[in-house]
Amino acid sequence: MNIIEKSTLIKQGKLGSTELCEDSLGRIAANDQDGLKLNSVSEINPNWYFEARALDGNPDKAEVKSPLYGIPVLLKDNIDVKGLHTTAGSFALSDLIADKDSFLAGKLKEAGAVILGKTNLSEFAYWMSEEGMPSGYSSLSGQVVHPYNPEYDPSGSSSGSAVAVAAGFVDVSIGTETDGSLMSPAISNSIVSIKPTVGLVSRSGILPISNIQDTAGPMARNVTDCAALLQVIAGKDPDDPATWNCHTDDYLSYLKNDLKGKRIGVFTAKELKCDEEYLRKLKEIIVTAQGECVDIYYENTYFDEMIPLTYEFKNGINSYLAQHNSSCRSLDDIIGFNNRHAERCLKHGQSLLIASNNTSGFLKEKEYLKKRAELREQAYTHLDKVIDDNHLDCLVTVCGHAPTNLAAISGNCSMVIPARKPDEEKYDPLSFYMLGKAYKEGELINLAYVLEQALKIDARPSWLKQ
Asked: Which residues are catalytic?
């Protein structure tokens, strides 16, 4: 049953939001801190019961149009929710409690969703260290564990959000991405995710890395739930200029099981290991759905974004902390705190924090502007121009590690869905990875839905099925 069907039952009084939330909390209690000890959830909203009970008791609930009414959602712990911590997994920010909702959290509450709590992540959304820090690790909460096999890499940085969905704690969650932090854990944990176009979903009240590349996005076990969640969180925010010209759409209308008239670029790349069997299967599904395949080959899909991200992180984190109540008021304070608590905070170093702090953080520096302009041109040439020159609706490949860099630096949308049932004895994830132009999420949802309906994969861990 998808979340739209569950929400409909809640509005009809045949299912309770309170009941759904209790079921989620029971699963979390059984296998997050106990049982399998997946460690995906960092905090539970202490007011969930009263919020869910109010939704159940709403006399006008049958008239509510939202597809998320009464549905429990978990948010990555770099997104502000009033009264809950926002730590980004850092022990240095363990005293930071949001005094107001992020715009995204506000939209979820307006839609009748219940924010059940927060999820663990790779510390500072994996902008902490290049010195071997594992994905899903943070100094505050420790290691997130893969739900299929504890030896597997849960990937990151939205590790907890992905694991919580894959383990069945919730149907949907919210993660964030600067470069790969939605797509990579979704692939690793065999779930569905959309990285929206930068500016489709507000970043107000989200602890940042990059004002150019950051976005929040949905994570779910199926395409319908992912589209429904995107439908709710997309929209213009007066406090986030990136959203002022955003183009929202009826994403649920793209849940169509045909590709008639669509030209799909099926791409491979020099550095990308593609599974030939599933590449053929991908093309067969597209053609069967009346779409047209166009072969695309890339010599290179990666461009170095390190210099601009160091500037943007310092600028963004200092601005964020200045507006919040943590005892750490700047990046310099965080680095100093970590040095004073090195045994806990610096098991894997803080090289990225230091590299960022060593920049001026001013976004007018010649070095910064030159590199960001170069990246913008490279992304256009390798993504938008390829789509336009070949008259494509979108691009797709099959991979175990997505080439996320092009969508990241262009700000364009991307999406993943699992391509096969995961192997619980050998770590070998495989997903379909899709790329589109700005605000073309609907095209990706359409293709993803066709692939999902053709393959009908039950990607849940075996213990969850039992």
From this structure: 76, 157, 181
